[in-house]
Amino acid sequence: MVLTDKVLIRLNATRGVNSFKDIDPNHSAIGCAGCHGGVSQVDAADDTSAYRAAHTGMLRDPSAIGELGCSGSSCHGEIVTRNETSMHSNLWGEKAHVALRNGYESFNDCPAEIQEGYTNDCASCHTTCGQCHISRPNAAGGGFLEQRVGYSHKFLATPSEENVCTACHGSRVGDDWNANQERVPGNVPDVHNEYGLTCLDCHSEDLHGEGPSDAQYTSRYEVSGLPQCIDCHAADRDDNIYHTQHWPNANATDGSDLSCYACHSQQYNNCNTCHAGTWKSEYEPDNSGEYRVYPLFKMGLNPNYGIEDKPHNNSEYVAVRHVPVSPDAFREWGIATMPNYSAKETWKYTSPHNIKRWTDRTYVTEADSGLWVNVNPSAALNGDNGYCFLKCHYSNGTTTLGTMTHVAVNTDVFVTQADLESDVTGEDLSDEIEANQKVLVNDSFPCGACH
Prior knowledge:
Elements: H1 20-23, H2 25-28, H3 32-36, H4 47-54, H5 77-83, H6 87-90, H7 92-101, H8 112-121, H9 129-133, H10 161-168, H11 170-178, H12 191-194, H13 199-202, H14 230-233, H15 241-246, H16 260-264, E1 299-301, E2 317-322, E3 347-349, H17 377-381, H18 388-391, E4 400-401, E5 404-405, H19 406-409, H20 433-436
Antiparallel strand pairs: 1-2, 2-3, 4-5
Helix pairs in contact: 10-11
């Protein structure tokens, strides 16, 4: 037997690391076997026999089974119990929508082939206590963060943003937050990132969950205590006329209610490679298995607007992201066509992590500052594109300004019927129109709808 599959805890006397106690004094009191199992005291004739005896019954990741790992000896029992039903551990929103589109009230009501297919294809993002607080999550490549003296097996109360938070939430949140130029060219990092804030400066909710009641969630936006821009920016409401006219309050008493993202977001990814079965290659012409993303920015109507107990119900206009689900998305699970596919919109509320103070929609010239509705058309035709109606506001579907219709100007801003085609194949997605009526902004959108 070749003993090569060891995980080393590197020691170095000259650096003051003589034992595991010097790396982590709290967990060293438990000892290796206290977490991993196995046998701590072995009397054997040779190293190979000792290795086998010591590792009998050992758990590679003890926190994968809460009662045998982190909650053992009454260490973190209460946290482990809450985490077992948390959004992070169960992805309740995904499960709820898989069930809904297939015509079932809950995921537990789904037949075995759907539950098994979900577990095999969609549940790989689940992680354990140790994969956040000691090592790197398996979904992000696994392994210890660093194999250097005094670091391996060091327990981190606050997980690493780079190796945990954005390692898992990378293709959207991480790319937004850090401005990944390969996927979102031209973006700059989120303004909060540039000012030195981290994920946990805003996300103060308990990421371990609240307990069994979390199982009732049907969206990640229902999680208790999610951050809101107003938590820090309440005083900004009256800073300028754009805020006073658009600040969301769920009743439009002072103008249309826009989410902060509607004005202050940059372009963001729309990912199209999360289908079951051949998800890594089905959209890639050269079958390379690379992700295909489609950076864009879109605004739509919020289906939750004004509805009590719904998340983000104070914003009528929100940033939306196109989710890559199709009627045959689960064909590998034996579901040829989802029977209730149109029950939920495919343009979904989104919260991009790429906030920018001055965007294409917030940048206006000083001369425009008082011209919110009544604009000077001749100035706009002479090259000044800072006017609000050229940024967002429709006049109607037929009025023209020179040779430029307002609808054409705003094609890249609002979700309209023209958007309902696949951004991968160009195929007609008219079967989505019924569900997406809740987010569509009509092509003949009148000013009077808001004013």
